[in-house]
Design goal:
Largest sheet: 6 strands, antiparallel
Radius of gyration: 43 Å
CATH class of the largest domain: Alpha Beta
CATH topology of the largest domain: Heat Shock Protein 90
CATH superfamily of the largest domain: Histidine kinase-like ATPase, C-terminal domain
Strand order of the largest sheet: 3-2-1-6-5-4
Helix content: 40-55%
Length: 684
């Protein structure tokens, strides 16, 4: 980050002094025409937006000449200007256009600066240079806080750069608008001072009189006398043809605003507009035309220049719009009546709406708020100069393609000088993939922790189990050796039965530990593994949970199955998730349905070059409108706080990485059935 750049204080002062006196930069400052001007709403709004975006008490837009940093717009402090040598803005001339100071009193460059040592008590500052039309730095956009900051994230610094570009766009628009007005005034002045050239032609349409008091027109008069207009050098109508014009003349018709161009004897191109009417003598004989001619050369040049200026203005407005459109964030601006005043293209794409549908529509008609309406009401009733702090919330929206997207939305206000809220802006960032990735990473970390715990538990439990196994086997052997002796009470046989039961339970406990070790074993490498062993292990891990929940967990006999490629523990993760979901669904049945004991059935078979595994329950099934969205990230039918909505999404991804598929359907009789289809591993 630029704030880590180390510059000796004396060296920095010298370098700042050189940069401040740079002639090209000072000329750019002069031509921007901002120094010592009155406040302007456009710049004040950018400063307000900066405070809102970063949640800071102070922000400013400054212009820097050779000795001072003067604040064109400021919020949160009283200083109008400060010496440039030790100013934050001047330092951006050295630091590639940006400066981040995390704790100013600890920085020798700024500890004595007025904003730091004075009443404003600035601790933190971030500034980005603002450049003029020729690329020279003329000032800066800065945010300041009375608290030191630990860091400024790169994406937030990028936001400050975007505000600087917004200032530059406003400067460009201001310049174009000024130039536009200048051209309009020049055009108006031209119209006031110009006068028509009065002319007469004879019956053969030769110019016989060309009268004007305008200075400099004598050469044109000499050039035109005795000629027909179509005989002028390079004469060409701007509309129509000479034949059409001649037909009007021969018909003795009045004409208006006929335009043509020519080149004078001095080689000057001219554009003319003429109007005329036929003239008759006392006897009614046609003697020619009389009319007026206007030199529109400069007018047309100004019109073309004005059109070019307007085109540049439109281009600048498009660039300004692109700042809002190209960031990827969803932006919605509403007015005090909660009517939508602005919606950018990412918002329209995410919601499947057209711009003409949303502009002027009420917020609730388009998206609702997703926030407490009381917050918006309190904002709109705010009546003090205090700047309101933005707040963030999560919102899940349905995209046009049917998927659900998780948005992190920041709501902030645009306030006027009195603090009155004029607009409320919602800025949403799509965090669907990031949130899903975070939870998957947490899931992987949790699985790794379980693996470490399982390894330790297995070691600790296996030792006493082994001792018990040896003890039971030894005791069983001794009793069997003495079975030939008299035992009228049948004590020995009964003891053997009990020892056999103990041995079975020891073997069962050992099997569960082996399954837990297999489930917790981490490996990113795909290998061939025994499907039946993985299924039996997964069922064994949840069997006791199901018994306690009053649910029968049935594993149908599995025949000989070929191996599949992947990670056995990942397949077990999928199966356990499906069985736990089935358990939850059975537990959520109504009282009538729960009279039937819950049952979960797991079965597997080989089918057409693949292994098919099914997990079915005898619940009430899945609603038809939910089925198509079941594997979407963050989609859940469980109550708030009971599920992340990522279990089936992660399971689907695990199966996909094993080149398989997962599908769900409702069984004809009752309950849901999940089907995994996994390709057989190729022969090694």
């Amino acid at each position: 980050m630029p704030s880590t750049l180390t510059i000796d204080a004396a060296q920095a002062t010298d370098q700042v002094s050189v940069a401040l006196r740079d002639p090209a930069r000072l000329e750019a400052v002069r031509t921007c025409d901002l120094l010592d001007t009155e406040p302007e709403t456009a710049f004040d709004r950018i400063v307000d937006l900066a405070r809102t975006m970063f949640g800071v008490p102070m922000a400013a837009i400054s212009v820097i000449d050779n000795s001072r940093e003067w604040f064109k717009a400021r919020r949160g402090f009283d200083a109008i200007e400060i010496p440039a040598a030790a100013s934050f803005g001047a330092q951006t001339l050295l630091l590639a256009g940006e400066l981040v100071v995390l704790d100013a009193p600890r920085d020798r460059r700024f500890r004595r600066q007025a904003l730091v040592s004075g009443p404003s008590s600035v601790r933190f500052c971030a500034a980005v240079s603002v450049r003029g039309r020729d690329g020279q730095p003329i000032g800066a956009v800065a945010i300041m806080d009375e608290r030191p900051w630990a860091a400024l994230a790169a994406d937030r610094l990028a936001g400050l750069h975007a505000l600087a570009r917004l200032v530059e766009a406003e400067l460009a628009t201001r310049h174009i608008a000024g130039r536009h007005e200048e051209l309009r005034q020049r055009f108006s002045d031209l119209a006031k001072v110009s006068s028509d050239l009065v002319w007469d032609t004879d019956v053969e349409h030769r110019i016989v009189n060309f009268d004007t008091e305008m200075p400099g027109m004598a050469p044109l008069r000499r050039f035109a006398l005795g000629k027909r207009r179509w005989e002028f050098r390079e004469a060409e109508p701007l509309k129509g043809s000479w034949a059409d014009h001649l037909a009007v003349l021969e018909a003795r018709q009045e004409f208006r605003d006929f335009e043509y161009k020519l080149v004078t004897s001095l080689g000057e191109p001219r554009e003319m507009r003429i109007s005329g009417r036929p003239v008759y003598d006392r006897r009614g004989t046609f003697i020619g035309y009389r009319g007026a001619s206007t030199d529109i050369t400069l007018q047309r040049a100004r019109e073309r220049e004005l059109a070019a200026s307007e085109a540049r203005l439109r281009e600048d407005m498009l660039k300004l719009r692109s700042i809002v459109e190209s960031g990827g964030a969803l932006i919605l601006l509403i007015d005090r009546n909660l009517k939508i005043a602005l919606a950018n293209r990412p918002f329209l794409k995410a919601t499947g709406r057209r711009l003409d549908e949303v502009l002027g529509a009420h917020l609730d008609e388009v998206v609702g708020t997703g926030t407490n309406r009381a917050v918006l009401t309190a904002w709109l009733e705010h009546a003090s100069a205090e700047r309101l702090k933005p707040f963030e919330f999560d919102r899940v929206v349905n995209a046009p393609d049917g998927t659900r997207r998780m948005l992190r939305v920041t709501a902030s206000t645009v306030q006027d000088e009195t603090g009155r809220v004029e607009y409320i802006m919602f800025l949403g960032v799509d965090e669907t993939e990031r949130r899903a990735t975070e939870i998957q990473l947490l899931d992987a970390a949790r699985l790794a922790t379980v693996g470490q715990m399982a390894t330790g538990m297995a070691h600790e439990i296996n030792q006493p189990l082994t001792v018990l196994q040896f003890a039971v086997e030894g005791l069983t052997g001794e009793i069997e050796d003495n079975l030939h002796r008299d035992d009228p009470e049948g004590f020995a046989a009964d003891t053997l039965t009990r020892l056999k039961r103990m041995e079975d339970q020891i073997q069962r406990a050992s099997g569960i530990i082996r399954s837990l070790q297999g489930f917790a074993h981490r490996s990113d490498k795909a290998t061939s593994f025994d499907v039946e062993q993985a299924i039996v292990g997964a069922v064994g891990l949840v069997d006791e949970q199901m018994r306690l929940a009053g649910i029968d967990l049935e594993l149908e006999p599995i025949g000989a199955l070929p191996s599949i490629a992947g990670q056995a523990n990942r397949l077990q993760q999928v199966l356990i998730n499906l069985m736990i979901n089935a358990r939850d669904a059975l537990g959520e049945r109504d009282e009538t349905a729960r009279k039937v004991r819950g049952r979960i059935t797991v079965r597997a078979r080989q089918e057409s070059g693949a292994v098919v595994i099914e997990v079915a329950d005898n619940g009430t099934g899945i609603p038809a409108d939910v089925l198509p969205r079941l594997f979407e990230p963050f989609f859940t039918t469980k109550p708030s706080g009971k599920g992340t909505g990522l279990g089936l999404s992660i399971s689907s991804e695990i199966v996909r990485k094993m080149n398989g598929t997962i599908a769900v359907e409702n069984q004809p009789d009752s309950g849901a059935l999940f089907r995994l289809t996994l390709p057989i591993a190729p022969a090694s």
